[in-house]
Amino acid sequence: MTLSGFSRWALRAFMALGLLFIYVPLMLVLVNSFNGDRTFAWPPHDFTTRWWSAAWANDGARAALLTSVKAGLGATAIALILGTMVAFAVQRFKFFGRDTLSLLIVLPIALPGIVTGIALDSAWRSVIEPLGIGKGLFSVIVGHATFCVVTIYNNVLARLRRTGVSLEDASADLGASPGQTFRYVTFPLIRSALLAGGLLSFALSFDEIIVTTFTAGPGVTTLPIWIFNNLFRPNQAPVVNVVAAILVVLSVLPVWFAQRLAGPDAGASRT
Amino acid sequence: MRHRFFLAALSAGVLVLAGCGGGDSGSTGSGPGGLSVPKIDKLASLGAGEGEVNIVSWAGYVEDGSTDKTVDWVSDFTKETGCKVNNKVAATSDEMVTLMKTGEYDVVSASGDASLRLIYGGDVAPVNTDLIANYKDVFDGLKNKQWNSVDSVAYGIPHGRGANLLMYRTDVVKEAPTSWGAVFDANSPYKGKITAYDSPIYIADAALYLMKTKPELNIKNPYALDDTQFKAATDLLTQQNELIGEYWSDYTKEVQAFKAGNSVLGTTWQIIANLAEADKAPVKAILPTEGATGWSDTWMISAKAKHPNCGYLWMNHIISPKANAAVAEWFGEAPANKLACAQTADKNFCTTFHADDEAYFQNVWYWTTPIARCLDGRTDVTCKDYSAWTQAWTTIKG
Amino acid sequence: MLSAPLLWLVVAYLGALAVLLVSAFWTVNSFTGQVVKQFTVANFRTILTEEVYRNVTLRSLGVAAAVTVICVVLAVPMAFYMAKVASPRSRKWLVIAILTPLWASYLVKAYAWRILLANGGPVDWLLGGPGNGPGYGLFAVILVLSYLWLPYMILPIYAGLERLPDSMLEASADLGARAGRTFRQIVLPILIPSVFAGSIFTFSLSLGDYITVQIVGGKNQLIGNLVYANIGAANNLPFAAAIATVPVVVMVIYLIAVRRSGALEEL
Q: What stretches pass through the bilayer (chain A) (predicted)?
């Protein structure tokens, strides 16, 4: 469709406004991390860097960040494996319940977090705990993986549907073992889909608080939980702003890296 | 092959369901007429520490220096006793109860709106106070109260206390209020800028006001309300809802609202008033003539504690004068240990927080879980329990 | 090879959901707080007959619907610009720009809005003085939730549009279709499943939220708050479960309805 110059201009203006809407609150977070007032009085009267030094010295925040990264990576790893396997199964085989499967996989993310949280909590306690595995970081990882699978599944499935099986058939015909076919043909085909899904999955896990509240064992503090605990205490709230500001800045790195790795067509897409 | 699996999975699901439906039935003999406390033995003697202890606490009660290097009363404890501390911060009393029911935690810092629920639910054990050396220095006004004991059996160690005060903006509220009537006045000029605590337990604030202003209702204890009394309190709150700008539950929100002027009049805690003043907001907090509701937190030990010895060691440590002073100052409440007042960094701390002012706390009705057996001793009526309070609170907020 | 993960998903998760829903038919002994496993519809009777639950449900549905509509209105032009107007180079940066805010904590963003909307805060100031802004309330809840979930709407729409080859749009134009017709007949069929996919996020995340409304909602409560309050009033898990049935039923109906559009595969 050929767009008139005006429509292009209007769309560009809309995009700019949209980005403004998205970034103004984030700017405020950044500004407030220098606000001398503990409860972010507006307009700021005095500026200080003491929150930044306090955040730097805050072991709790660093430990929580590490926990969150572990949880995010763990959940994403599980989701990558499961999501890919299920996507392959759905694409390649016919079996009873196949059509219900996509509904089932969407369910953990589509139901309100509080419902998923309670359900996972009681599932853990009645199914896993009798096996001697108490709640801890692992239960957080499993909980997050449960609702992250869908991002990988959908990305990979869409890719598989688009590419079909002809390339793999060709590879097999040329004498490649299934391992070789996966390594040299299938994996490169789905690589960017895995990255896009993985990125979204990691982001979902990284900022999840409601399900985490119900699945975390004693002593497991993810970053959102740490933020929850500290934001509501005036002594600590400004430090939370600093942490959030750092996160926003740092988050560009993995996203940018993934974009490079996945090639020009990636990002959130699964072309 | 795959569809067989699917069927198997389905039937397994049904099994889980049935399994969950079966177990877990009552440890207590309880009929609608009476209320009995599950029989749980207290620890007879202290053994060696188990190497760790799992704690559920309010934010700021268990600090190991990870928030602020200078705020640390956990490391010394671990060094002395060899008990590693795993802490889980709960946001609300309700969350604490839920967490304690999992049986994964040894010790909890329960407020009075949770403690009775834990006791009657059989989730916590009585405490052998003889094993807690520092217990003798706790203010008498805090020992063996309705929210931490049953029939003179102690179920916990008092940690600290505070009152729910009335705070107002001195530049906006011209006529300084002296009564809770200010927040219930249907013709209040501050309509839309009044705030109240967001919890079913706030119903007691209305009951306390009615107790003093409507003697014909014959309210003896704001946590023991029969049908008529309860209806009067909830009616008052429904009418108050028109005046409310927002309900608050976390104190960053409350300080910020008073600073910005979104709220100009409403309930508060001493620590919030102090913080708002420190940030130069023109506010004042008072204890109204009717008295006030308040809270006193209690350290309790789980009935299923896996680390009871470390749990006892912790309870003794947290009310030791030094730790008790440190936690009281960091959190902003009156300490429970008499000797703590000599250990605070701010020498006026105990005065500001009325720590040793028994007359001040005489007018304070500490949060207590409302239960069906009336706490004021009446036996001819049943009182509204906390579930009913919760549902009523939903209705009040609309 | 599918068994282990599916076992977890089907048996544990669905099993637990089922137990949760079954427990909605139980009650609690008001003296001990123990769950009484005896079938009763009392919880549902309360929810259906007491006005407050109907009001809160309708309010929550209204908020979720409004958030979804706002997100669609904002996301479609933005995603269209990203996928079809921007140069491939800037496209990459725009995707990064949309993804980045997902990493800043949800709570911190909600609190940033609380400051923005405060009495005499930046929004009031922009509109000419204290009290001129919308302040805290339902409007603020809708605004903030739209803000929080917007990226989840943009991403699937962008992905859908990006899959649509430019050549198809050109062909349509070459064959004489005006922009409006091309949009209706080429773009819209791609757009609809993507929009539904995004709406699953925005709708369900809004329906389950109980934190944003506490931060900027003034004195309002949504269905998530009711579930949370009753779980906590701990002893009343059955009643909480009964309330939780409402969003679950709504979401399942919604999912089944949009499944036909292929939306579930666009997430």
A: 12-34, 71-89, 101-120, 132-153, 184-203, 209-227, 239-257
Which top CATH class is B165-268+371-397? Answer: alpha beta
The predicted model scores a pTM of: 0.84
Fold classification of C51-266 (topology level): MetI-like fold (1.10.3720)
Give the tens place of pLDDT for each residue, A206-265: 888 888 888 887 678 899 888 887 776 656 778 888 888 888 777 777 777 766 765 544
- Classified as helix, coil or strand, B293 is strand
Identity (one letter) of the amino acid at A100?
A: T
Interface contact C81-A14, CB threshold 8 A: yes
What angle separates helix B93-101 from helix B112-120, to the nearest 10 degrees?
A: 20
What ipTM was predicted for this assembly?
A: 0.84
Burial class (CB in 10 A: 0-12, 13-18, 19+), C56: buried
Q: Which amino acid is at B42?
A: K
Q: Which of A31-35, B111-115, B235-239 reaches the highest mean pLDDT?
A: B235-239
Which of the 8 DSSP states describes residue C28? E
Per-residue CA distances from C35 to A65, A221, B24, B31, B103 (Å): 38, 30, 9, 14, 17
Q: Which residue do the tokens 């139980």 mark?
A: C26
Does A23 touch chain C if contact means CB atoms closer than 8 Å?
yes
- Interchain pair A42, B59: CB under 8 A: no
| pLDDT at res. A232 | 67
Which residues are CB-neighbours of A187 under 8 A, at least 6 positions away?
none
- Identify all chain C residues contacting B244, using CB atoms and an 8 Å cutoff: 219
Q: Which residues share a beta bridge with B298?
A: B110, B158
Q: Which two tokens stand for residue B148?
A: 């931490």
* Interatomic CA distance for residues B92 and C214, integer angstroms: 13
User: What are the extents of the domains in chain B?
Assistant: 52-162+295-363, 165-268+371-397
Residues of B in contact with A122 (CB under 8 A): 20
Could you read off the pLDDT of B139-182 as tens digits, one per residue?
A: 988 998 888 888 889 999 999 999 999 999 999 998 899 999 99
Interface of B with A (CB under 8 A): 2-3, 6-7, 16, 19-20, 54-56, 59-60, 65-69, 86-89, 91, 95, 102, 104-105, 250-253, 255-256, 259-260, 275, 278-279, 330
Higher-confidence position of B13 and C86: C86
Planar angle of CA B282, A55, A48, nearest 5 degrees: 50
- pLDDT tens digits, C203-228: 988 988 888 999 999 899 999 888 88
Distances (CA, A) of C74 to C69, C81, C90, C144: 9, 11, 19, 14
Q: Which helix or strand (DSSP H or E) is residue A260 part of?
A: helix A237-262
Count CB-CB contacts under 10 A for residue A95.
15
Q: Which helix (H) or strand (E) holds B161?
A: strand B157-163
Q: What is the DSSP string of B22-64?
A: HS---SS---SS-------PPP-S-----SEEEEEE-TTSS-B
CATH match for B52-162+295-363 among 3.40.190.10, 3.90.550.10, 1.10.340.30, 3.40.50.2000: 3.40.190.10
Fold agreement between B52-162+295-363 and B165-268+371-397:
yes
Please report, for chain C, the start and end positions of each structural domain, with discontinuous segments joined by +.
51-266
Query: What residue of A is the nearest CA neighbor of C70?
Result: A18
For B22, the closest chain C residue by CA position comes to C37
Question: Residue B30: pLDDT band by 50, 70, 90 thresholds?
Answer: very low
